């Protein structure tokens, strides 16, 4: 019976090793405080309990589509440009994956300020610079020829933007925003982390 004292009717262990509670539809398996459920080797934990908290062992395989890790990076700096040369903006640290065969779902939220025709912003994997903050390498993850925040001439606007992307990095990677002005812009363009912090959120998704 269970440790609560009630009897378990018709407990049956088959020749295949299956345990059937055929006569008790509300039967419970109660783990001892220092025990658990282990693989056939007797040492690889599947499910353990400590202090009333149940934990899955590292050998447990999660189904495809399951989020196995969430990481966030915040940036409060401002990045300003007055030209059309792509510049390195806010970046994350290196994202260490549980498995490099998994996918990475990325959400970036940031605040932009622009005058007269606006600002272009793209998401990069592993952005690199040649000198200063000028981009000379990395993988552009933002599709399209003009990924921009656009306003009419003579206006100025500040607005929050959010980018999302499902990436297959195949390695631990760094992500960042690359920004540059619309060719017709004659004013300043800014990613305003001091007014609203730039937020990178990474969800590692099992495949």
Give a structural overview:
- The model has no long low-confidence stretch (mean pLDDT 85).
- The protein is elongated.
- It contains no helices and 16 strands.
- The protein has strands at residues 11-13, 19-21, 36-38, 45-50, 53-56, 67-75, 78-81, 87-91, 103-115, 119-129, 135-140, 148-149, 156-167, 175-181, 189-192, 198-205.
What keyword list fits this structure?
207 residues, mainly beta, six-stranded antiparallel β-sheet, five-stranded antiparallel β-sheet, 0% helix
Could you give the order of the helices and strands?
Answer: EEEEEEEEEEEEEEEE
Mean pLDDT: 85
Mind describing the biggest β-sheet? 6 strands, antiparallel
End-to-end CA span: 41 Å
Shape type = elongated
Instruction: Report the strand count.
Output: 16
Helix percentage? under 10%
Uncertain runs: none
User: Hey, roughly how much beta strand do the residues contain?
Assistant: over 45%
Structural class: mainly beta
Radius of gyration: 27 Å
Give the number of helices.
0
């Amino acid at each position: 019976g269970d440790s609560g004292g009630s009897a378990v009717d018709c407990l049956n262990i088959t020749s295949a090793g299956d345990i059937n509670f055929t006569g008790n539809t509300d039967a419970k398996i109660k783990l001892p405080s220092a025990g658990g459920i282990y693989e056939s080797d007797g040492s690889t934990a599947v499910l353990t309990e400590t202090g009333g908290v149940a934990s899955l062992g590292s050998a447990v395989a999660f189904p495809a589509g399951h989020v196995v890790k969430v990481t966030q990076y915040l940036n409060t700096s401002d990045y300003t440009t007055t030209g059309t040369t792509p510049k390195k903006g806010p970046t994350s640290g290196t994202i260490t994956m549980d498995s490099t065969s998994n996918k990475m779902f990325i959400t970036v939220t940031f605040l932009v300020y622009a005058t007269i025709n606006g600002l272009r912003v793209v998401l990069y994997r592993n952005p690199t610079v040649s000198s200063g903050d000028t981009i000379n390498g990395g993988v552009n993850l933002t599709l399209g020829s003009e990924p921009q925040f656009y306003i009419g001439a003579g206006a100025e606007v500040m607005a929050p933007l959010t980018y999302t992307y499902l990436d297959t990095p195949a390695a631990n990677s760094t992500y960042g925003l690359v920004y540059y002005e619309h060719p017709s812009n004659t004013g300043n363009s800014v990613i305003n982390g001091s007014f609203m912090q730039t937020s990178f959120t990474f969800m590692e998704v099992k495949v």
